[in-house]
User: Fold this.
Amino acid sequence: VQLLESGGGLVQPGGSLRLSCAASGFTFNNYAMNWVRQAPGKRPEWVSHINSSGGSIYYADSVKGRFTISRENAKNTLYLQMNSLKPEDTALYYCVRSELGDVYKYDYWGQGTQVTVSS
Assistant:
């Protein structure tokens, strides 16, 4: 199993970024996926969840209305569109796979992509 994130970078407050996660080594369209972030000195924070088909989506209150999760099963790719970014969104963003049968448990994490929001 490999999860490879990309798309992070430095952006000014109010700006946008689109994160991607290329999945391989498993049947991507069988699994729910998540984005989780971790800011320096803080515990990991769940950001968003999407089920295997993309029909059920959930967001943390802190990002609701600003972030959009999506997936393209034909390309084995997960996305996170981030708009109206704030300095408090600065973190390492991880693509995370949910376990089959228990979407609240995670079994594989990517290496993360850094998002820094600063003027």
